[in-house]
Protein backbone atom coordinates (compact mmCIF):
# COMPACT_ATOMS: atom_id res chain seq x y z
CA UNK A 1 0.00 0.00 0.00
CA UNK A 2 1.15 3.54 -0.80
CA UNK A 3 0.99 6.15 1.94
CA UNK A 4 2.59 9.15 0.24
CA UNK A 5 0.83 12.47 0.69
CA UNK A 6 -1.10 11.32 3.76
CA UNK A 7 -0.31 11.94 7.42
CA UNK A 8 -0.98 8.76 9.36
CA UNK A 9 -2.98 9.39 12.53
CA UNK A 10 -2.61 7.55 15.83
CA UNK A 11 -5.63 5.35 15.12
CA UNK A 12 -4.34 4.45 11.65
CA UNK A 13 -0.88 3.68 13.03
CA UNK A 14 -2.43 1.31 15.57
CA UNK A 15 -4.16 -0.63 12.80
CA UNK A 16 -1.08 -0.68 10.58
CA UNK A 17 1.16 -2.08 13.33
CA UNK A 18 -1.18 -4.91 14.28
CA UNK A 19 0.54 -7.41 11.90
CA UNK A 20 3.77 -6.90 13.83
CA UNK A 21 2.05 -8.30 16.93
CA UNK A 22 0.47 -11.30 15.22
CA UNK A 23 3.54 -12.57 13.35
CA UNK A 24 5.63 -15.48 14.57
CA UNK A 25 8.38 -13.06 15.55
CA UNK A 26 8.02 -12.38 19.28
CA UNK A 27 10.79 -9.77 19.42
CA UNK A 28 10.39 -6.16 18.41
CA UNK A 29 13.21 -3.63 18.10
CA UNK A 30 12.37 0.07 18.18
CA UNK A 31 15.11 2.42 16.94
CA UNK A 32 14.00 5.81 18.25
CA UNK A 33 15.58 9.03 17.07
CA UNK A 34 14.80 12.64 17.99
CA UNK A 35 14.30 13.86 14.39
CA UNK A 36 13.91 11.99 11.10
CA UNK A 37 12.13 12.47 7.78
CA UNK A 38 11.70 10.32 4.71
CA UNK A 39 13.55 13.01 2.75
CA UNK A 40 16.72 12.25 4.72
CA UNK A 41 16.98 8.93 2.88
CA UNK A 42 16.89 10.54 -0.57
CA UNK A 43 18.31 14.03 -0.02
CA UNK A 44 21.54 13.01 1.68
CA UNK A 45 22.13 9.96 -0.51
CA UNK A 46 21.76 12.03 -3.70
CA UNK A 47 23.78 15.00 -2.44
CA UNK A 48 26.97 13.13 -1.59
CA UNK A 49 27.20 10.55 -4.36
CA UNK A 50 29.25 7.54 -3.34
CA UNK A 51 29.22 8.52 0.34
CA UNK A 52 25.75 7.09 0.85
CA UNK A 53 24.72 7.81 4.45
CA UNK A 54 22.65 4.63 4.54
CA UNK A 55 25.40 2.33 3.30
CA UNK A 56 25.65 -0.12 6.15
CA UNK A 57 29.22 -0.53 7.40
CA UNK A 58 28.61 -4.08 8.57
CA UNK A 59 26.53 -5.62 5.83
CA UNK A 60 27.82 -3.30 3.06
CA UNK A 61 24.25 -2.40 2.18
CA UNK A 62 23.32 0.48 -0.07
CA UNK A 63 20.00 2.26 -0.12
CA UNK A 64 18.95 0.20 -3.16
CA UNK A 65 19.72 -3.06 -1.39
CA UNK A 66 17.87 -1.81 1.66
CA UNK A 67 14.81 -1.26 -0.52
CA UNK A 68 15.16 -4.78 -1.91
CA UNK A 69 15.22 -6.18 1.61
CA UNK A 70 12.05 -4.25 2.44
CA UNK A 71 10.34 -5.63 -0.68
CA UNK A 72 11.45 -9.21 -0.01
CA UNK A 73 10.47 -9.06 3.67
CA UNK A 74 7.34 -11.03 4.65
CA UNK A 75 5.87 -7.78 5.95
CA UNK A 76 7.31 -4.33 5.28
CA UNK A 77 5.78 -0.91 5.74
CA UNK A 78 7.06 2.59 4.92
CA UNK A 79 5.13 5.56 6.30
CA UNK A 80 6.52 8.87 4.95
CA UNK A 81 4.46 11.03 7.32
CA UNK A 82 3.11 10.11 10.76
CA UNK A 83 1.40 12.37 13.25
CA UNK A 84 3.89 13.58 15.88
CA UNK A 85 1.47 12.74 18.68
CA UNK A 86 1.39 9.12 17.52
CA UNK A 87 5.17 8.68 17.41
CA UNK A 88 5.73 10.57 20.65
CA UNK A 89 3.64 8.02 22.54
CA UNK A 90 4.71 5.00 20.50
CA UNK A 91 6.62 3.34 23.36
CA UNK A 92 3.67 3.50 25.74
CA UNK A 93 1.35 2.23 22.99
CA UNK A 94 3.60 -0.75 22.26
CA UNK A 95 3.77 -1.63 25.95
CA UNK A 96 -0.03 -1.63 26.20
CA UNK A 97 -0.49 -3.59 22.96
CA UNK A 98 1.24 -6.70 24.27
CA UNK A 99 2.82 -8.10 27.40
CA UNK A 100 6.37 -7.19 26.35
CA UNK A 101 9.49 -7.46 28.42
CA UNK A 102 10.81 -3.91 27.99
CA UNK A 103 14.55 -3.52 27.45
CA UNK A 104 15.85 0.06 27.20
CA UNK A 105 19.43 0.40 26.08
CA UNK A 106 22.01 2.81 24.77
CA UNK A 107 24.81 0.27 25.14
CA UNK A 108 24.66 -1.54 21.81
CA UNK A 109 26.96 -4.44 22.67
CA UNK A 110 24.47 -7.19 21.79
CA UNK A 111 26.72 -9.91 23.17
CA UNK A 112 25.95 -8.60 26.65
CA UNK A 113 22.18 -8.48 26.07
CA UNK A 114 20.19 -11.30 27.60
CA UNK A 115 17.20 -11.92 25.32
CA UNK A 116 14.78 -14.53 26.62
CA UNK A 117 13.06 -15.78 23.47
CA UNK A 118 10.44 -17.68 25.48
CA UNK A 119 8.53 -14.43 26.06
CA UNK A 120 7.91 -11.33 23.90
CA UNK A 121 10.70 -8.75 24.10
CA UNK A 122 10.55 -5.05 23.24
CA UNK A 123 14.03 -3.61 22.76
CA UNK A 124 14.05 0.22 22.69
CA UNK A 125 17.28 1.68 21.30
CA UNK A 126 17.62 5.43 21.85
CA UNK A 127 19.78 6.78 19.04
CA UNK A 128 22.01 9.83 19.25
CA UNK A 129 20.15 13.13 18.71
CA UNK A 130 20.71 15.01 15.45
CA UNK A 131 21.39 18.65 16.26
CA UNK A 132 19.52 21.16 14.11
CA UNK A 133 22.55 23.47 14.07
CA UNK A 134 24.74 20.92 12.25
CA UNK A 135 25.54 21.26 8.58
CA UNK A 136 24.32 18.68 6.09
CA UNK A 137 27.85 17.32 5.69
CA UNK A 138 28.15 16.68 9.44
CA UNK A 139 24.68 15.13 9.50
CA UNK A 140 25.85 12.77 6.76
CA UNK A 141 28.48 11.23 9.03
CA UNK A 142 26.08 11.15 11.97
CA UNK A 143 23.72 9.11 9.78
CA UNK A 144 26.66 6.86 8.90
CA UNK A 145 27.24 6.28 12.59
CA UNK A 146 23.55 5.58 13.24
CA UNK A 147 23.38 3.20 10.27
CA UNK A 148 26.41 1.37 11.62
CA UNK A 149 24.64 0.92 14.96
CA UNK A 150 21.49 -0.43 13.33
CA UNK A 151 23.48 -2.78 11.11
CA UNK A 152 25.60 -4.15 13.94
CA UNK A 153 22.62 -4.80 16.19
CA UNK A 154 20.45 -6.49 13.55
CA UNK A 155 23.35 -8.58 12.23
CA UNK A 156 24.32 -9.88 15.66
CA UNK A 157 20.74 -10.85 16.43
CA UNK A 158 20.47 -12.69 13.11
CA UNK A 159 23.70 -14.57 13.81
CA UNK A 160 22.25 -15.65 17.16
CA UNK A 161 19.18 -17.01 15.37
CA UNK A 162 16.75 -14.56 16.97
CA UNK A 163 13.77 -13.63 14.81
CA UNK A 164 12.60 -10.04 15.17
CA UNK A 165 10.75 -7.11 13.63
CA UNK A 166 12.16 -3.59 13.45
CA UNK A 167 10.60 -0.13 13.68
CA UNK A 168 12.77 2.88 12.79
CA UNK A 169 11.15 6.22 13.57
CA UNK A 170 11.58 9.52 15.42
CA UNK A 171 9.70 11.78 17.80
CA UNK A 172 9.31 14.59 15.28
CA UNK A 173 10.22 15.36 11.64
CA UNK A 174 13.58 16.85 10.73
CA UNK A 175 12.26 18.63 7.65
CA UNK A 176 9.07 20.68 7.81
CA UNK A 177 7.07 20.43 4.60
CA UNK A 178 5.90 23.54 2.84
CA UNK A 179 2.31 24.66 3.11
CA UNK A 180 0.28 23.24 0.23
CA UNK A 181 -2.60 25.69 0.51
CA UNK A 182 -0.40 28.45 -0.88
CA UNK A 183 -0.40 26.73 -4.27
CA UNK A 184 -4.09 27.37 -4.79
CA UNK A 185 -3.80 31.13 -4.33
CA UNK A 186 -3.88 33.06 -7.61
CA UNK A 187 -1.70 35.97 -6.56
CA UNK A 188 2.08 35.69 -6.76
CA UNK A 189 4.01 34.88 -3.62
CA UNK A 190 7.50 36.30 -3.14
CA UNK A 191 8.34 33.95 -0.29
CA UNK A 192 6.79 30.73 1.00
CA UNK A 193 6.10 30.23 4.67
CA UNK A 194 6.78 27.30 6.91
CA UNK A 195 4.13 25.52 8.86
CA UNK A 196 3.27 27.03 12.19
CA UNK A 197 5.71 25.72 14.78
CA UNK A 198 3.60 26.67 17.77
CA UNK A 199 3.52 24.70 20.99
CA UNK A 200 1.76 21.36 20.52
CA UNK A 201 0.53 21.45 24.12
CA UNK A 202 0.29 23.96 26.92
CA UNK A 203 3.29 24.47 29.22
CA UNK A 204 3.27 23.13 32.74
CA UNK A 205 2.37 25.86 35.24
CA UNK A 206 2.79 26.13 39.00
CA UNK A 207 0.43 28.46 40.83
CA UNK A 208 0.43 30.10 44.24
CA UNK A 209 -3.12 31.12 45.04
CA UNK A 210 -4.55 32.52 41.82
CA UNK A 211 -1.23 33.57 40.29
CA UNK A 212 1.14 31.53 38.15
CA UNK A 213 4.73 31.66 39.39
CA UNK A 214 6.49 29.02 37.22
CA UNK A 215 6.10 28.02 33.58
CA UNK A 216 7.94 25.05 32.08
CA UNK A 217 7.86 23.59 28.56
CA UNK A 218 9.83 21.04 26.51
CA UNK A 219 9.05 19.19 23.30
CA UNK A 220 11.09 16.20 24.51
CA UNK A 221 11.94 15.54 28.15
CA UNK A 222 13.75 12.24 28.63
CA UNK A 223 16.39 10.63 30.84
CA UNK A 224 18.62 7.57 30.63
CA UNK A 225 19.75 5.82 33.82
CA UNK A 226 22.91 3.72 33.90
CA UNK A 227 23.13 3.73 30.07
CA UNK A 228 20.31 1.19 29.92
CA UNK A 229 16.99 2.44 31.35
CA UNK A 230 15.30 5.01 29.10
CA UNK A 231 12.66 7.23 30.74
CA UNK A 232 10.46 9.44 28.57
CA UNK A 233 8.70 12.02 30.78
CA UNK A 234 7.24 14.20 28.01
CA UNK A 235 3.78 12.69 28.01
CA UNK A 236 3.49 12.44 31.80
CA UNK A 237 4.66 16.03 32.28
CA UNK A 238 2.76 17.98 29.65
CA UNK A 239 -0.02 15.85 28.11
CA UNK A 240 -1.54 13.70 30.86
CA UNK A 241 0.21 15.78 33.56
CA UNK A 242 0.65 12.65 35.67
CA UNK A 243 3.19 14.51 37.80
CA UNK A 244 3.14 15.91 41.31
CA UNK A 245 4.27 19.55 41.56
CA UNK A 246 3.08 20.22 45.10
CA UNK A 247 6.65 20.47 46.43
CA UNK A 248 7.47 23.40 44.13
CA UNK A 249 8.32 26.65 45.88
CA UNK A 250 8.06 30.25 44.71
CA UNK A 251 9.46 33.49 46.13
CA UNK A 252 10.92 36.74 44.88
CA UNK A 253 14.50 35.48 45.22
CA UNK A 254 14.39 31.67 45.01
CA UNK A 255 12.19 29.33 43.00
CA UNK A 256 12.18 25.54 42.87
CA UNK A 257 10.27 23.52 40.29
CA UNK A 258 9.73 20.03 41.69
CA UNK A 259 8.46 17.25 39.40
CA UNK A 260 7.60 13.96 41.13
CA UNK A 261 6.73 10.79 39.19
CA UNK A 262 5.46 7.50 40.62
CA UNK A 263 6.70 4.33 38.89
CA UNK A 264 7.91 6.08 35.72
CA UNK A 265 9.49 2.80 34.53
CA UNK A 266 9.95 -0.70 35.87
CA UNK A 267 12.61 -0.77 38.56
CA UNK A 268 12.17 2.84 39.71
CA UNK A 269 9.39 3.39 42.25
CA UNK A 270 9.69 7.18 42.45
CA UNK A 271 11.59 9.89 40.65
CA UNK A 272 11.85 13.58 41.50
CA UNK A 273 13.47 16.23 39.31
CA UNK A 274 14.14 19.67 40.74
CA UNK A 275 15.05 22.86 38.87
CA UNK A 276 16.55 25.44 41.28
CA UNK A 277 16.46 29.08 40.16
CA UNK A 278 17.53 32.35 41.81
CA UNK A 279 16.78 36.02 41.20
CA UNK A 280 19.63 38.41 42.04
CA UNK A 281 20.52 42.05 41.47
CA UNK A 282 23.83 42.66 39.67
CA UNK A 283 25.40 46.10 40.03
CA UNK A 284 27.36 45.85 36.78
CA UNK A 285 24.22 45.59 34.65
CA UNK A 286 22.06 47.51 37.18
CA UNK A 287 19.23 45.00 36.90
CA UNK A 288 17.95 41.69 38.25
CA UNK A 289 18.83 38.44 36.51
CA UNK A 290 17.17 35.04 36.92
CA UNK A 291 19.53 32.07 36.81
CA UNK A 292 18.97 28.33 36.70
CA UNK A 293 21.67 27.28 39.14
CA UNK A 294 21.30 23.51 39.35
CA UNK A 295 19.20 20.49 38.44
CA UNK A 296 18.71 17.61 40.88
CA UNK A 297 17.43 14.08 40.26
CA UNK A 298 16.27 12.07 43.27
CA UNK A 299 15.65 8.36 42.66
CA UNK A 300 13.53 6.38 45.13
CA UNK A 301 13.80 9.19 47.67
CA UNK A 302 17.46 8.63 48.54
CA UNK A 303 19.83 8.61 45.56
CA UNK A 304 20.58 12.25 44.72
CA UNK A 305 22.21 13.26 41.43
CA UNK A 306 23.13 16.93 41.18
CA UNK A 307 24.07 18.89 38.06
CA UNK A 308 25.48 22.37 37.80
CA UNK A 309 24.12 24.39 34.91
CA UNK A 310 26.04 26.54 32.44
CA UNK A 311 24.77 29.40 30.28
CA UNK A 312 21.25 29.54 31.70
CA UNK A 313 20.47 33.11 32.73
CA UNK A 314 18.10 35.83 31.55
CA UNK A 315 16.80 39.20 32.72
CA UNK A 316 14.32 38.64 35.54
CA UNK A 317 11.46 39.87 33.36
CA UNK A 318 12.25 37.36 30.58
CA UNK A 319 11.94 33.61 30.19
CA UNK A 320 14.86 31.40 29.20
CA UNK A 321 14.83 29.28 26.04
CA UNK A 322 17.30 26.81 24.57
CA UNK A 323 16.89 24.37 21.70
CA UNK A 324 18.90 21.58 23.37
CA UNK A 325 19.72 21.10 27.05
CA UNK A 326 21.40 18.03 28.49
CA UNK A 327 24.52 16.26 29.61
CA UNK A 328 26.15 15.98 26.18
CA UNK A 329 29.02 18.30 25.28
CA UNK A 330 27.31 18.99 21.94
CA UNK A 331 24.36 20.79 23.52
CA UNK A 332 24.41 24.62 23.79
CA UNK A 333 23.35 24.47 27.46
CA UNK A 334 25.07 21.69 29.36
CA UNK A 335 24.27 20.00 32.65
CA UNK A 336 27.57 19.37 34.42
CA UNK A 337 27.65 16.50 36.97
CA UNK A 338 28.68 17.72 40.42
CA UNK A 339 28.65 14.38 42.28
CA UNK A 340 29.32 10.73 41.49
CA UNK A 341 25.64 9.78 41.26
CA UNK A 342 25.11 12.31 38.46
CA UNK A 343 27.48 10.36 36.22
CA UNK A 344 24.86 7.58 36.05
CA UNK A 345 22.31 9.84 34.33
CA UNK A 346 21.99 11.23 30.82
CA UNK A 347 19.51 14.08 30.33
CA UNK A 348 18.03 15.24 27.04
CA UNK A 349 15.61 18.19 26.81
CA UNK A 350 14.67 19.75 23.49
CA UNK A 351 13.00 23.14 22.99
CA UNK A 352 13.50 23.86 26.67
CA UNK A 353 11.80 26.99 28.05
CA UNK A 354 11.35 28.00 31.67
CA UNK A 355 10.34 31.10 33.61
CA UNK A 356 10.39 31.24 37.39
CA UNK A 357 9.82 34.93 38.06
CA UNK A 358 7.48 37.72 36.93
CA UNK A 359 5.02 35.47 35.07
CA UNK A 360 2.09 37.47 33.69
CA UNK A 361 -1.20 36.27 32.16
CA UNK A 362 -0.04 32.63 32.40
CA UNK A 363 2.19 33.12 29.35
CA UNK A 364 5.92 33.11 28.73
CA UNK A 365 7.56 36.50 28.53
CA UNK A 366 10.04 37.42 25.82
CA UNK A 367 12.61 34.61 25.68
CA UNK A 368 16.34 35.07 26.15
CA UNK A 369 17.92 32.34 24.03
CA UNK A 370 21.02 30.37 24.95
CA UNK A 371 22.56 30.98 21.55
CA UNK A 372 25.08 33.80 21.90
CA UNK A 373 25.02 36.84 19.68
CA UNK A 374 28.55 36.27 18.41
CA UNK A 375 28.09 33.11 16.39
CA UNK A 376 31.03 31.52 14.50
CA UNK A 377 29.86 33.20 11.29
CA UNK A 378 29.84 36.63 12.96
CA UNK A 379 33.30 36.07 14.40
CA UNK A 380 34.62 35.06 10.96
CA UNK A 381 33.11 38.20 9.44
CA UNK A 382 34.58 40.40 12.16
CA UNK A 383 38.07 38.92 11.83
CA UNK A 384 37.96 39.24 8.04
CA UNK A 385 36.80 42.86 8.29
CA UNK A 386 39.57 43.70 10.77
CA UNK A 387 42.22 42.21 8.46
CA UNK A 388 40.89 44.16 5.46
CA UNK A 389 40.75 47.39 7.49
CA UNK A 390 44.34 46.84 8.63
CA UNK A 391 45.44 46.39 5.00
CA UNK A 392 43.56 49.57 4.01
CA UNK A 393 45.08 51.54 6.90
CA UNK A 394 48.57 50.33 5.98
CA UNK A 395 48.03 51.30 2.33
CA UNK A 396 46.82 54.80 3.29
CA UNK A 397 49.80 55.19 5.61
CA UNK A 398 52.23 54.23 2.82
CA UNK A 399 50.58 56.68 0.40
CA UNK A 400 50.86 59.51 2.94
CA UNK A 401 54.60 58.81 3.28
CA UNK A 402 55.23 59.52 -0.42
CA UNK A 403 57.16 62.81 -1.07
CA UNK A 404 57.75 64.81 -4.27
CA UNK A 405 61.15 65.88 -5.66
CA UNK A 406 62.53 69.24 -4.49
CA UNK A 407 63.80 70.00 -8.04
CA UNK A 408 62.39 69.32 -11.48
CA UNK A 409 64.16 69.24 -14.85
CA UNK A 410 63.26 72.10 -17.24
CA UNK A 411 63.25 70.78 -20.85
CA UNK A 412 63.96 74.28 -22.23
CA UNK A 413 66.91 74.99 -19.97
CA UNK A 414 70.20 73.27 -19.31
CA UNK A 415 70.11 69.76 -17.95
CA UNK A 416 69.69 69.45 -14.23
CA UNK A 417 72.79 68.17 -12.53
CA UNK A 418 72.43 66.59 -9.13
CA UNK A 419 75.69 66.07 -7.22
CA UNK A 420 76.32 62.67 -5.72
CA UNK A 421 76.41 64.21 -2.23
CA UNK A 422 72.75 65.10 -2.50
What's the gist of this structure?
With 422 residues, the protein is α/β, with parallel strands linked by helices. 24% of the residues lie in helices and 30% in strands.
CATH architecture of the largest domain, by name, is Beta Barrel
Q: Count structural domains.
A: 2
> What is the overall number of helices?
8
Q: On the 0-100 scale, what is the average pLDDT? A: 76
Fraction in beta strands: 25-35%
Report the top-level CATH class of the largest domain.
Mainly Beta
> Rg from C-alpha positions?
30 Å
The computed structural class is alpha/beta
Output the helix-strand order: HEHHHHEEHEEEEEHEEEEEEEEEH
InterPro entries: Ac45_acc_su, VAS1/VOA1_TM, VAS1_LD
GO molecular function, one term: ATPase activator activity
Domain V-type proton ATPase subunit S1/VOA1 transmembrane: 372-410
Subcellular location: Membrane
Amino acid sequence: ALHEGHIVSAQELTALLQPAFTQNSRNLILFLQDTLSIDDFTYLSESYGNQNPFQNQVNKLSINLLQEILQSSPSSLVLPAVDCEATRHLVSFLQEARDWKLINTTNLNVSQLEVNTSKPNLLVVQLRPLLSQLTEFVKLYMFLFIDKIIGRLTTDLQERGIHFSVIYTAVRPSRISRRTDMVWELRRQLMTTEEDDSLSYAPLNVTTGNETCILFYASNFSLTANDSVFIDLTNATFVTQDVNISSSECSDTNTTLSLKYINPVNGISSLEIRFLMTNKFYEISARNWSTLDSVEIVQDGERLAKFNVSVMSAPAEYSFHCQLVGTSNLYPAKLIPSNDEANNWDVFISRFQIQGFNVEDNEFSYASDCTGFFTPGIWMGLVTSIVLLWILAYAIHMIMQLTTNSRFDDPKGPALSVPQTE
